């Protein structure tokens, strides 16, 4: 009988307790007579688990010289720890588990890319993050009788023992089992085994995030959460065409954007949903679109440049609000009126910090609710911009301003015509 676990044929003298099995893990026993190809026993050198090897390596591709240097550094860091520390310390990957809804220790597993069973024996162990995050990097031989797969597929799972064994562990085989147990790995989060202090609070925490900058700046998870929330609330995340909506190193290092955006789940579910919404909005804006200014809507609108009036008159497909692209107010025929002309000034930081009585008068919940309700039930006359309220009935509006008297459609916000009469005269 040949025992296969985590892509390796285990030697006969190896104890299973040294394999970091954990809860809800599975090993495969294959009849030695059915082994397709004589597998090469991969050495368990330096008594390092696969978790220890990967978490100590850089996220970037490394050459052999750099890899040897990193391995020497890892051996040095292990020698300065005591035997008591070694027995108490566990080296794990970190994943964000959707079932646990929090950051958890993770386990690396490997299956055949074709049949999704864990009976594959890899040709070599992964040496760096790219080996497990990039498809088709490592080959092997699948020992399942009905499979001829030769590509290893790595995935991560939550190491907690609280998951339902029928749904979350890898006792069942196939693609469904892999998808159910899969968790998103957060490669920038590491155990702080060398005692680096946080760049923000200067405390030495057990678990830290290492920014992907050249200096590898370290920040504790609490400060990282505060840093991201501050950037998010100020809407100062960066939009990158390849990476998406992300942040740089807190020190401001160049080329340090966080690529795996699931790290931002550490902000909490509500903040992460806000992050996703802001990211989608920035994507629309960067593509030349606009956001509907109607309160309670905010839908993203990509403009059709084939329409002759696409630069000025926009109709929201979600709430049907018609507005001017330039000033984001209700659509109008004449020139846009600036906020200054309307008596509205742009807020500034010093005005908010002053906390004067005048500012306090404008910061009342009920007043804001009233202004929002008025805006939802009124639209400006397309010609003179006089606010007009509709309380029901006909869609044919007549401007109440004596000098204007413009006849217009409440829906289209254009001059009243026969199409308006036929399509939406009332409603």
Structure in words:
- With 427 residues, the protein is an alpha+beta fold.
- The protein folds into three domains: 2-62 and 89-185, no CATH class; 189-286, Herpes Virus-1, CATH 3.30.40.10; 290-345 and 362-424, no CATH class.
- The chain is built from twelve helices and 22 strands.
- The protein has helices at 50-55, 64-79, 83-88, 129-133, 165-168, 175-181, 221-233, 269-286, 349-354, 357-361, 365-377, 418-424, and strands at 2-5, 8-9, 28-30, 93-97, 102-112, 120-122, 140-142, 152-158, 184-185, 189-191, 207-210, 218-220, 238-240, 244-246, 290-291, 300-301, 313-315, 322-324, 378-380, 387-389, 396-398, 407-409.
- The strands form nine sheets. A four-stranded antiparallel beta sheet has the order 8-5-4-9. The protein has a three-stranded antiparallel beta sheet with strand order 2-1-3, with no helix packed on it. A three-stranded antiparallel beta sheet has the order 10-11-12.
- Strand 17 and strand 18 (322-324) form a beta hairpin.
- The chain is elongated, with a radius of gyration of 30 Å.
- The model is unreliable at 44-49, 73-89, 165-171 and 343-369 (pLDDT under 50).
